[in-house]
Design brief:
Elements: H1 4-26, H2 42-48, H3 51-84, H4 88-102, H5 105-116
Length: 122
Amino acid sequence: MGSVPSLLILFVLVVYPLAMLLLQIVFPELFSPHMSWHFSLAAIRQVLQNPLNIESIVNSTWMGMVAAILSVAIGTLTAFGAMMASGYLRAFINMCVWVIFFAPSFIIASGWVILLQGGGVL
């Protein structure tokens, strides 16, 4: 039960926005003023028609795999370091890990998009 608040915060900050973003890909009018649940793959088809988009998808996938491998290596070293440390150092390492989990970069990027989009906050 002790992890429920953390998981709830993680859900609200990460899972829900990501799910809504992915849902909007196949339901493009979901958040428009005239909401519609009309299913459409037109956006995906339009993206895949341009060869530069396909190249960018391949490059992003490759970079994502490299980042995942590096993350696993750094995370493993951090976990071993946290287990070997004691006292305040162990608490500090654990706190840093949780801060990283709750402050993903796409939340910051989403804030900039909301701030600068046409008809947005500014």
